[in-house]
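Why does residue order matter? Because the sequence determines the fold. Keep that principle in mind as you read this record.
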Amino acid sequence: MCVREKRAILARATRNRPFSDAMFTRAPSLVVAACALVVCLTANAAPAGQKPLESAFAALLETLTQAEREITESAAFGSDAEQAGGYRHLLRALMKGIEAEVLQDADYPYFRILDFWLKEGGDNPDQRYAFSPIRGGEPYRVWGTLGSAARVELQLYAGRPWDGTGTSVGYLKFEDIPIADDGSFEIWVTPEKRPGAWLGNPAEATTVFARHIYATWDDAAAAEIHIDRVGYEGRRKPAQTGLELADRIRAAADMFHTTATNWPTFVQQRYVGSRPANAVIPPIDTYRFGGVRGRWLSSGHFDLADDQVLVIRMPKTAAPYQAIQLTDMWYASLEHGNQVSSLTTAQSVLAPDGAYYYVVSTSDPGYPNWLDTGGLRRGVHILRWDGLSETLPEAQWPTAKVFARTDLKAHIPGFHEVTPAQRDVDRAARRRHLQRRANR
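Structure:
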């Protein structure tokens, strides 16, 4: 089956195409590579004597085997820990494909959550991502509560952004969403403008993408978000036919393969193969690449020996939200509930020179702003700024440098240490927050 035939099948039912902010820095060559990686599944018609469901499931198994082979041949499939990460990446991609393509429904929608269970695409530990398929040109109502989140925002996409072929077709920023005294909000996603918070739903829209963004991780009530197709509340969902499910299984296989193979290719092409290790690029305005206005991104990759530390200096800015995180070579966020692999500036110690110094290392360097690699020697670091109204001046760009662990104290102004007991307290607080924020 060619790509055009597969997409014709996918067009029968609108589904969501999740991805992260980091995709907006995608190199054009990666889009071409991603398209080339898509597996040509079996023909639309089932082989003689084989039923559509049997044929679709056989195609899924074939795709699983193909993706496993590509993952084990990847440059990211190095150490034992990286190999374990590769197989976790495969299984997460399969879970995502099944949830998004088999279970979700644009007429009877529920938000699918990308959280600490399903990590991919440079996912931000400070955000709770919610995705739902929608039908373009039809009315929907999104509602929920802000809770302890700092911001909530809504975006619409058309096409297939998860493989680099989609585009943004609408965005509603936090400042335009009225929040009631009790923290609740309601957003209408409809083709015709209506009073209140409104986001136009054009005919080409396929996905609604919501973000709750947390600047602090505390024990306060977490945010909620829900979606209904207007007029379908209480309507009985019709039974699914075998042919419809077969089409969805094939779509899940397609999404699984693309998700599984795109991200290690992205890391290799965008980071390892094109930049020096242990450095950061100048911040990028993601709005130029279809992202959110006011959101800037910088990144790099680390490659450290056990006796080395990477120190990233991040000056304080006017951004309401500013943060840093680590990912593995599969571009999945590292464990962040029982390990401090991400920090916002609200969670960080500010040095006397007006900058935040973050220490990336395989073991505890003693400094408060430690980003724990969990023993990984290789990975990616991502820096984010949200809510900027102007260009980030060069004086506020981040810098990075590698030092010997024994020399660290001399390179951080106001260096002081925290105790192992305090680390335990910090990890326990993070875990408690995630239990409230991301429990399904």
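The longest strand covers residues 205-213.
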